[in-house]
């Protein structure tokens, strides 16, 4: 039995050697494409270890994913999956830099231009169209067909929105008599509005998520107001309301800077956190600083018999960011 | 085994000649040539993670009440879109990993493109015969910015809503047609119709990815057709002759290794470093805003430009012609794109050198180009940094308005100073090199002369 085995081994070995010899001979005859190099067993071992480690990490990911008691562990997922990818990357980079032979070959850059081909193409086009007698007219007719068809194909894009009409930009949900609703969903009473504080209110019975809906409400000392004369009755008891949409880029005026340090902040200010446009509530929303180009639209207020704040009319100007022609008219009555 | 496989493939496709050529295509070796590859691999990660996310994301603004596992938001009104992203983060197993990896990949993608563009510019790789490759790259860069913006905007969290309001104001600020343009894109006055979410979604998951993917394919095809540029690393590397490592076996494992390394880095970031925790921002509401909100880094230059612009609209009597956001939000990026697109032609015209180039310059070899590039970069980076002035106010108490005026002055003057200094430095470096060369030549000569006399030899 043993002898048979030894014989078999010897035969196999011989076969292998013969094959090796044959392939070497073949190589010599043909000439190598890739130059030969000596083995690097150390680096090979490193690659094998890295590959097994990568497999282990990937299995780790599978285990963490499968075992419910571990929960949704984003960090462990990241470590195992990222680790596996990283180990595989390391293995490949070692293969590229240490195991495969480093070649430095050379070749010619391709021609930057091919004058003969250019000429041939022009010739083909010329000769193909040589039967045509009225080329200009044909070209013009083709252009007309293509152009008109393109316009027709593009026309449905007009349905995307009210493209030819900017009226919707002036629309607001505020009318004379509309009640102000606070953030808690209850009507905002005039006596609930305190100085040095900042309230957001919405029109009653209207959509809340409309850029023209929310207003900021603040109370200032009536003696310190310097509103334009026609707005003298817009701030009952010093309570003022302004559109919450910045006239610069439409972000919500989410900051109220009541003067905490008077030397640098002499007056209260409404500030937009996006680009720091700063508006003066005492003067009817004039721009104090920042990139805004228009004052903040003011909403006239009045106090109803029930003590609830109501709009005295529509805004003093268009709400939100400006567009070409924005100053042409005021929002609807 | 290999022979049989290759035979089968060849008989089926006839691709062997092509394949053989591709295997022995040469890549010149320099670390900076890998930046473009990093971008390519980040894009692949984006596509893979993005497809996974679409399987869960619901692009709908229909309001719903949150009843999921994240306690602080229970009972809150929110859009289906926002809710589905909170669910991806909390309910879908490994969902947060994929989502954060996707977001990180976007940031790394744009960063890699920017570095790649800088490498290509400062080495003059954009010159003939590669102008078209450069221009396609520039278009891809800006398409990627829009793509990223659309991606984080469609989530409908508070931050994305604020970003959309700014985008709306920029659209509206377009002279003459702005109002119509804004209404057209949004389907009505801000926040627009519900269809707007569908528009964002299809733009983010189909239109822009396909655009970027197509341009990417053309970009790579052009690189291969012209072959890669090379540095003059050896005297054998010339305008006519390319020295490099073949695709197989040299380049393939390295490049594949880089791909996996990029993926590993992004997955590790996605797993370990939190990014855009939208459950903390809360759902969007036109009446709400947060202070200290910062967009993804690649939009920082636009925030800076919008903040830096002094407050005025251009009006003729009662007619508003140019609202303020146009300058920073539209004109500024358009100028940057236009300058970048024109660079290859402008350089040809200014230097009179319109010939093809396969060998790269070092920055000092072209003082004018390098100086212009650095000046232009200074301009954009200063505007970018101006966007963080509010942070400087919060952390160091620097007065915001004063900072704005300092930045405005810097933005106007600093590029010129940088231009002059950079050109001078490049010229001095060139001169120093020439001197060193002359001295070496002189020394060699002296040595040769003294050799016969020297007793030691």
Explain the overall architecture.
The complex is a heterodimer of chains A (333) and B (457). Chain A is built from five helices and twelve strands. Chain A has 333 residues and is an alpha+beta fold. In chain A, the strands form three sheets. A five-stranded antiparallel sheet of chain A has the order 2-3-4-5-10, with no helix packed on it. A four-stranded antiparallel sheet of chain A has the order 6-7-8-9, with no helix packed on it. Chain A has a two-stranded antiparallel sheet with strand order 11-12. In chain A, strand 11 and strand 12 (309-311) form a beta hairpin. In chain A, helix 2 (41-66) packs antiparallel against helix 3 (74-99). The N and C termini of chain A lie far apart (110 Å). The model of chain A has no long low-confidence stretch (mean pLDDT 90). By secondary structure, chain B is mostly helical. Helices cover 66% and strands 5% of the residues of chain B. Chain B is built from 16 helices and six strands. Chain B has helices spanning 2-13, 16-23, 35-54, 80-90, 95-122, 131-153, 158-172, 178-186, 195-226, 247-272, 278-281, 300-308, 325-351, 367-386, 389-396, 400-450, and strands at 26-27, 63-65, 77-79, 241-246, 314-316, 319-322. In chain B, the strands form three sheets. Chain B has a two-stranded antiparallel sheet. In chain B, strands 2-3 form a two-stranded antiparallel ribbon. Chain B has a two-stranded antiparallel ribbon with strand order 5-6. In chain B, helix 5 (95-122) packs antiparallel against helix 6 and helix 12 crosses helix 14. Classes of the chains: A alpha+beta (333), B mainly alpha (457). Chains A and B meet through helix 3 and strand 1 of A and helix 5, helix 7, helix 8, helix 9 and strand 4 of B. Strand 1 of chain A pairs antiparallel with strand 4 (241-246) of chain B.
């Amino acid at each position: 039995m043993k002898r048979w085995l030894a014989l078999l081994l010897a035969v196999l070995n011989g076969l292998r050697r013969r094959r090796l010899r044959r392939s070497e001979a073949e190589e010599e005859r043909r000439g190598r494409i890739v130059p030969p190099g000596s083995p690097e067993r150390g680096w090979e071992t490193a690659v094998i270890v890295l590959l097994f480690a990568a497999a282990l990490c990937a299995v780790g990911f599978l285990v963490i994913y499968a075992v419910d008691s571990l929960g949704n562990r984003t960090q462990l997922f990241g470590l195992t999956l990222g680790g596996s990818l990283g180990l595989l990357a390391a293995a490949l980079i070692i293969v590229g830099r240490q195991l495969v032979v480093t070649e430095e070959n050379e070749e010619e850059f391709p021609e930057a231009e091919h004058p003969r081909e250019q000429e041939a193409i022009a010739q083909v086009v010329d000769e193909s169209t040589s039967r045509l007698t009225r080329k200009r007219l044909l070209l013009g007719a083709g252009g007309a067909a293509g152009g008109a068809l393109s316009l027709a194909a593009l026309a449905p894009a007009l349905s995307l929105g009210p493209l030819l009409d900017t009226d919707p930009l002036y629309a607001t949900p505020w009318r004379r008599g509309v009640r102000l609703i606070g953030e808690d969903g209850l009507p905002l009473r005039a006596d609930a509005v305190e100085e040095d504080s900042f309230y957001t209110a919405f029109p009653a019975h209207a959509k809340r998520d409309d850029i023209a809906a929310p207003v900021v409400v603040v109370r200032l000392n009536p003696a310190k107001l310097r509103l334009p004369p026609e707005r003298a009755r817009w701030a009952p008891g010093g309570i003022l309301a302004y559109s919450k949409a910045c006239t610069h880029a439409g972000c919500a005026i989410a900051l109220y800077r009541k003067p905490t340090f008077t030397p640098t902040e002499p007056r209260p200010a409404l500030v937009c956190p996006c680009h720091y446009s700063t508006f003066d509530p005492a003067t009817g929303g004039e721009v104090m600083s920042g990139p805004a180009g228009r004052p903040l639209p003011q909403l006239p207020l009045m106090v109803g018999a029930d003590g609830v704040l109501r709009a005295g009319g529509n805004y003093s100007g268009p709400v939100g960011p400006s567009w070409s022609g924005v100053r042409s008219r005021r929002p609807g009555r | 085994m290999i022979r049989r496989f290759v035979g089968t493939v060849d008989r089926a496709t006839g691709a062997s000649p092509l394949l053989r050529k591709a295997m022995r295509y040469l890549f010149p070796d320099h670390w900076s040539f890998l930046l473009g590859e990093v971008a390519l691999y980040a894009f692949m990660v984006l596509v893979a993670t993005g497809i996974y996310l679409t399987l869960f994301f619901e692009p709908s603004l229909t309001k719903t009440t949150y009843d999921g596992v994240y306690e602080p938001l229970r009972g809150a009104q929110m859009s289906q879109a926002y809710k589905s992203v909170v669910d991806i983060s909390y309910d879908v197993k490994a969902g947060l990993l994929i989502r954060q990896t996707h977001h990180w990949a976007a940031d790394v993608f744009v960063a890699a493109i920017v570095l790649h563009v800088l490498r290509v510019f400062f080495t003059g790789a954009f010159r003939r015969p590669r102008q078209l490759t450069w221009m396609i790259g520039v278009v891809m860069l800006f398409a990627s910015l829009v793509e990223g913006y659309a991606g984080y905007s469609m989530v409908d969290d508070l931050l994305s809503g604020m970003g959309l309001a700014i985008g709306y104001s920029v659209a509206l600020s377009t002279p003459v047609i702005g109002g119509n343009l804004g209404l057209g894109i949004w389907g009505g006055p801000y926040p627009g119709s519900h269809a707007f979410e569908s528009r964002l979604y299809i733009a983010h998951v189909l239109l822009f990815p396909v655009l970027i993917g197509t341009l990417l394919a053309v970009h790579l095809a052009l690189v291969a057709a012209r072959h890669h540029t090379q540095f003059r690393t050896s005297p054998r590397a010339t305008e006519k002759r390319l020295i490099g490592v073949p695709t197989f076996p040299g380049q393939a494992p390295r490049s594949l290794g880089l791909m996996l390394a990029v993926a590993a880095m992004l997955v590790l970031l996605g797993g370990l470093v939190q990014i855009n925790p939208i459950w903390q921002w809360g759902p969007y509401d036109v009446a709400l805003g947060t202070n200290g909100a910062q967009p993804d880094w690649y939009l920082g230059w636009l925030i800076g430009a919008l903040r830096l612009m002094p407050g005025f609209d251009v009006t003729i009597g009662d007619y508003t012609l140019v609202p303020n956001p146009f300058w920073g939000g539209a004109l500024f990026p358009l100028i940057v794109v236009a300058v970048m697109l024109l660079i290859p032609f402008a350089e040809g015209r200014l230097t009179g050198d319109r010939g093809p180039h396969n060998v790269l310059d070092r920055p000092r070899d072209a003082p004018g180009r390098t100086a212009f590039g650095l000046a232009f970069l200074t301009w954009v980076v200063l505007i970018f940094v101006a966007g963080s002035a509010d942070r400087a106010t919060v952390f160091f108490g620097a007065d915001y308005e004063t900072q704005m005026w300092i930045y405005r002055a810097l933005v106007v003057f600093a590029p010129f100073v940088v231009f002059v200094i950079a050109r001078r430095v490049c010229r001095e470096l060139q001169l120093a090199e020439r001197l060193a060369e002359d001295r070496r030549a002189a020394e060699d000569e002296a040595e040769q002369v003294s050799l016969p006399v020297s007793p030691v030899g």
